[in-house]
Design a protein that fits this description.
The longest helix has 20 residues. By secondary structure, this protein is of the alpha+beta class. The radius of gyration is 16 Å and the shape is elongated. 29% of the residues lie in helices and 26% in strands. A hairpin with a 3-residue loop joins strand 2 and strand 3.
């Protein structure tokens, strides 16, 4: 989501991806809010969250929300993938 006019405060969070975690799917639900917006970029090794807000309180609240979701994602153990061909 592009920075809206009037959004003076921005922050970028870059995460080096861990295997087995789908960051985009989990954080993709964080749509625009009245005073802030989030833009997600994903490359093969890096997951990036760009946050823009109208005021510092909205920026802080949106950062906290994103960090809380990231903490949950990182805390949950990755599911074991069954090996094909082995019994």
């Amino acid at each position: 989501m592009p920075v809206k006019s009037g959004d003076r405060f921005t922050a970028t969070i870059r995460i080096i991806k861990s295997r087995g975690i789908s960051y985009g799917r989990a954080l993709g639900d964080m749509g625009p809010h009245e005073r802030s917006s989030i833009r997600i970029k994903e490359t093969p090794g890096v997951f990036q969250i760009e946050i823009s807000a109208r005021d510092p309180a909205a920026l802080r609240a949106t950062i906290n929300s994103a960090l809380k979701d990231l903490h949950v994602l990182e805390s949950v153990p990755a599911p074991e993938v069954p090996h094909l061909g082995k019994k």
